[in-house]
Design brief:
Mean pLDDT: 82
Helix content: 55-70%
Number of strands: 0
Structural class: mainly alpha
Strand content: under 5%
Number of helices: 20
Order of helices and strands: HHHHHHHHHHHHHHHHHHHH
Length: 361
């Protein structure tokens, strides 16, 4: 093709596309836009990798674990026994080795599409939202890993968050969505009950002793009260991201959901719409000086105990609950059941079906 023909083709392209758009919109209905966007570049870029290389590799292992989990669920929809084996042994062992020896973890942060290509095809819009929010995660870690003054760090964090929000089709909002969406829908909790061992990838100690793995998803008000106080919208944005990881896995794992993409996108539309389905529980932050023993004890609380803490009236009440025996916690949860049912309309039905209400341990 000569230069004149090439330029003519370029000139014709906009009008051709416009005609196609006007004449046959349905031809493009199943095509998802795959444009790339990039984070801000600042004097903090790559600070975490440079100053805390082991932590950086641990984060890469976490991302690998999340992506592999979804990928295995997508690739084996009709063979649950095989899926459980692949997650509980192959994927689990792979991520565990990365935590026990960080040199095995990737040297660079992995993109969702490269680690989980089939999962990304299943829900490309979600893959973009996951990647974009992980980018914000990494930017904030980079900023915090510098030796800048606190005020300058806060300024950079706010600037990065504004840049993140400039892509509303990919950005999780800074107001927490109700736990009814994550915990009390018909498909909720399916993958956690079917695949209990591969629930999270947090700390080396948890992989050395899997009994320490959290039994519920840790939230910012429990484990990051200082960050929550300084940047409440960013903390709740990250909580929304983590909640949607659970929702996505539940949908992929649940055998009665035939059209996975349609259900994922139905849920994603709710999550990316800032005013819809917001959390109403008080969720008081726990004290910032909890010991490692207290934090591990908290991680081992059941789902119902975790939900009970979310509706407590003060941080002091939560702390007292943390020190109670298992028998005392059962009594406390029973007294809070009416409040929990009022806070989350689907709570009572979901937990009655599963027999959790009277046996939170």
């Amino acid at each position: 093709m000569n230069r004149r023909a090439f330029l003519s083709l370029l000139a014709a392209t906009p009008s051709t596309l416009a005609a196609l758009e006007l004449g046959n919109r349905h031809a493009f209905a199943d095509i998802e836009r795959r444009s790339e966007i990039y984070p801000l570049v600042g004097p903090y870029t790559h600070a975490l990798k440079k100053n805390y290389p082991t932590v950086y590799r641990y984060l890469n292992a976490v991302d690998i674990g999340h992506a592999q989990l979804a990928e295995v669920l997508v690739r084996n929809p009709a063979n649950e026994e095989l899926t459980i084996h692949l997650l509980e042994h192959v994927a689990w062992d792979n991520v565990t080795q990365m935590f026990l020896d960080p040199r095995r973890a990737p040297r660079l942060a992995p993109a969702e599409e490269t680690v989980a290509p089939e999962s990304s095809k299943t829900a490309w819009r979600l893959s973009q939202a996951f990647d974009w929010t992980h980018v914000l995660h990494r930017q904030i870690y980079d900023i915090l890993a510098t030796d800048f003054l606190a005020a300058r760090k806060a300024e950079y964090i706010r600037e990065a968050y504004r840049w993140y929000q400039s892509e509303p089709r990919r950005a999780f909002p800074g107001k927490l969505k109700t736990h009814d969406l994550m915990e009390h829908q018909p498909f909720s909790q399916y993958w956690r009950e079917k695949y209990p061992r591969f629930t999270t990838a947090e700390f080396r100690a948890m992989f050395e002793n899997p009994d320490l793995l959290p039994r519920h998803m840790p939230m910012a008000h429990e484990i990051a009260p200082r960050f929550l106080a300084l940047f409440p919208d960013i903390a709740e944005c990250f909580d929304n991201l983590h909640s949607f990881h659970d929702i996505y896995n539940d949908i992929l794992a649940h055998p009665q959901i035939a059209d996975k993409q349609a259900e994922v996108y139905r849920q994603l539309d709710v999550f990316l719409d800032p005013p819809r389905a917001l959390e109403s529980a008080p969720m008081h932050p726990l004290p910032a000086n909890l010991s490692a023993v207290d934090l591990r004890r908290l991680n081992q609380f059941s789902h119902v105990e975790h939900m009970a803490m979310m509706v407590m009236s003060s941080s002091e009440e939560e702390r007292a609950f943390l020190r109670q025996s298992a028998e005392e916690r059962i009594t406390t949860v029973d007294t809070l059941l009416p409040v929990m049912s009022q806070t989350w309309p689907n709570f009572e039905k979901k937990h009655a079906e599963k027999g959790h209400l009277k046996h939170p341990g």
